[in-house]
Amino acid sequence: MTNNSFRTHHAGALRADHVDQSVLLSGWVHRHRHHGALIFFDLRDGSGLVQITCDPALSQSAHEIAAGLHSEYVVRVAGRVRRRPDANPNLATGEIEVLADSIEILNRCATLPFQVDTEGDAPRPGEELRLAYRYLDLRKPEMRELLVVRHRAVQAIRESLNSAEFFEIETPILMKSTPEGARDFLVPSRVNTGTFYALPQSPQLYKQILMVAGMERYYQIAKCFRDEDMRADRQPEFTQLDLEMSFVSQEDVFQVTEACIAAAVETTRGIKIETPFPRLTYAESMERYGTDKPDIRFGLELARISDLAADSGFGVFRNAVAAGGVVKALRIPDGASRSRKAIGELEKVAKVYGAKGLAWFKLNAGQATGGIAKFLTGAEVTEITARTMAVDGDAVVFVADTEATANAALGNLRNQVGQELGLTSRDKLCFVWIVDFPLFEETEDGWAPLHHMFTLPNLADLENLETSPGSAHAQLYDLVLNGWELGSGSIRCHDAEIQRRIMRIVGMSEEEAERRFGFLLKALDYGAPPHGGIALGIDRLVTLLAPHECNMRDVIAFPKTLSGVSLMDGCPAPVDPEQLEELGIAIVRRQE
Q: What one-character-per-residue DSSP string does 148-193 give?
């Protein structure tokens, strides 16, 4: 082939309008099949697939080369577009095919560790194998589509913020270690031996300093790093939309954030979502759903029955309330049809989250049967039925324990029941703001920030901040989508004295505060404006906006495993002793 160009058209863009046109295509052999004298293969590039037909009567050389092709060979094909006699309605290019005049093999492919062209119900290779050969995994059209969705979502967010007169500003990747919450990833300095940079857990301090600098509206698509234990929705490095605004209230942050999200949803899903998003206080969310990350796609709200339980004939309930605990209940739709064994499976879920057991009864013809029914009066059953909104054929389950345990057990059980009953369609996007969080939580070591220490308390709580930390609430908010926390934000402490008060309450001495956060405190002393913002997880958002079911690692080009390992390139990995010596670092082996 003498033409130096690789393509005149993209394979997936060809349509009936191109019939009788000569085309030059380049891509990968997706599928390959012989039908008597004719050879067919699907050519795939980034735009999609098109069928290539090789007829020896028209081009013997193309036919001979096609006979030796295998999956994932890279080829260049010259030919003519014609209508297919048997159109394929499941393919965008299904009305046409390309009759090959010539084929050139640009590169061959070694024996594949798994097939790229699997479709439908074909078993997927294990995730470890897919991650080890990530470049092959990403060739699959459904995997490529996820990265395209990610690109479109991010671009929609950028356009929304640019139109709102935000500036995209980069903050440092190498920064001072200011450990709070998760562990920092540390980077040794060769020039300043014995000192370390940290990779940012978030740009929190820098974006506040940008507000002090007068930038007023900042954002970036920021890489963040946390050395913490892995789980399905967590990676050691992740991407977030980070934004900050000066001279704003919580309402201003909500409006900007909702506009970004609405743009991303419309661009990726093609639907308009209603704004403003609904809101729940932290207390309401915990009471009704048992979590501050509620999935509001379905009802099944928790019901408190501690007042009824205090004088109940069931000793477990009475004792829990007497000990300062609570009793909460959850309706299980059609639960009366569940066997004792099936209810036992629900109890196992509750026990995973700390419950000692799961009490229950079934409701038939307005009467409670089975489980703890014999301990309850008719009036108690009537009231429990009303509070849980149970109807005949349902079951009602109970946890009697501390408030935290009852919420965790029933909140997670609620989510599982919602999934089992098909109430959690991913086509339904239900956003909710959680607001009015407590500023502090009490731990064994004293008071700690519930989120982080840079949040401004509600002004009404400032007077009693030191004397009653547990009653203080913060101008803090989370955005939740379908039970996933998308992000968190707050109105910040722009007054250095309020910031120092919070640091003292969490047990930080003036010396420690100066050592860890002195540069921020100094900046706040120089005319910091009132400001606030939010950080939203891009990886989580794209996972929920994806056109098909996937996990968070699928929407990241090169993710880590649950153990924090990149199987494709083998990192983390040892380094040469010479590098360690140059950095002044010695490896100390832990004792087994």
A: HHHHHHHHHHHHHHHHTT-EE----SSB----BSBBPEEEE-SSST
3 state DSSP class of 435: strand
pLDDT tens readout for residues 198-234: 999 999 999 999 999 999 999 999 999 999 877 777 8
Q: Could you tell me the pLDDT band of residue 2, with boundaries at 50, 70 and 90? A: very low
Structure tokens at 260: 């970004």
Residues 261 and 168: their CA atoms lie apart, in Å, by 17
Distance CA 304, CA 122 (A): 47
| Cα atoms in the Cβ-side hemisphere of radius 13 Å centred on 501 | 20
Q: Are strands 484-491 and 531-537 parallel, antiparallel or unpaired?
A: antiparallel
Please identify which residue in the block is written with the tokens 């093609």.
Answer: 270
Q: How confident is the model at residue 179 (pLDDT cuts 50, 70, 90)?
A: low
H-type alpha helices, 305-445: 306-309, 315-322, 340-352, 378-388, 403-420
d(CA 399, CA 387): 15
Q: What percentage of the chain exceeds 70 in pLDDT?
A: 98
User: Out of 3.30.1330.60, 3.30.300.180, 3.30.930.10, 3.40.50.620, which CATH number does the structure's domain 146-280+431-554 have?
Assistant: 3.30.930.10
**Phi and psi at residue 187, to the nearest 5°:** -125, 115
Q: Which CATH number fits domain 298-420: 3.30.1360.30, 3.30.360.10, 3.50.50.60, 1.10.3470.10?
A: 3.30.1360.30
Supply the pLDDT for residue 591: 73
Q: For residue 237, what pLDDT is reported?
A: 94
Q: What is the pLDDT of residue 228?
A: 83
Burial 282-295 (b: 16+ CB within 10 A, else e): beebbbbbbbbbbb
Task: List the chain domain ranges.
Answer: 11-107, 146-280+431-554, 298-420
In angstroms, rounded to a whole number, what is the distance separating the alpha carbons of residues 520 and 333?
A: 53
Amino acid identity, position 531: H
Per-residue pLDDT tens for 341-385? 999 999 999 999 999 999 999 999 889 999 999 999 999 999 999
Cα gap 275→177, rounded to integer Å = 39
Rounded to the nearest 5°, which phi and psi values hold at 555? -95, 5
Domain 11-107 has CATH 2.40.50.140: yes
DSSP 276: S
- Does residue 308 surpass a pLDDT of 70? yes
The SS3 of residue 348 is: helix
Distance CA 384, CA 99 (A): 72
Element (H, E) at 316: helix 315-322
- pLDDT for the residue 1: 37
CA distance 398 to 413: 11
367-369 and 279-281 strand pairing:
unpaired
